[in-house]
Each structure stands twice: as structure tokens, then as C-alpha cells.
Write a structure and sequence with these properties.
The chain is an all-alpha fold. It has helices at residues 4-27, 34-39, 56-59. The protein is rod-shaped and about 75 Å long.
């Protein structure tokens, strides 16, 4: 049984790569609420707007 240690290393590497692939698939899923978060950003400066009013860059407060 001289190849026992290298077999374990190969199994660990394969499990790691499978785990990373599964995480990548979950990362590409569209989660609910992403569209709402994208709409919460200001079109001109890209900052998140808080509340329903206009962004501070449109009010003239941000320079």
C-alpha cells in the first residue's frame, strides 16, 4: 500500500474542486431583491440612495 498517501491527496483536491464548483453555481443564481438593490443606486454617481428622495449629487450637496 505505498500509494495510500497520494490517493488521499487526490481525493482532497477533487473534493475541494467539486466544492468550489458548487459554490460558483450558487453564486451565479439570481437572488430575489437584486433588481430592487440595482434601482436603489443613483444613475449619475452610483451611490446608494436612502429614502425616496433624490440623491445628494442631484441636490447639489455632493461635490
Amino acid at each position: 500500500m505505498p500509494g495510500l498517501g497520494s490517493d488521499m491527496v487526490v481525493k482532497i483536491v477533487v473534493l475541494f474542486l467539486v466544492g468550489m464548483g458548487v459554490m460558483a453555481m450558487f453564486g451565479k443564481l439570481k437572488y430575489p431583491g437584486q433588481k430592487r438593490l440595482a434601482q436603489a443606486k443613483c444613475k449619475s454617481c452610483g451611490r446608494y440612495r436612502i429614502g425616496k428622495g433624490p440623491c445628494s449629487c442631484q441636490k447639489g450637496k455632493l461635490k
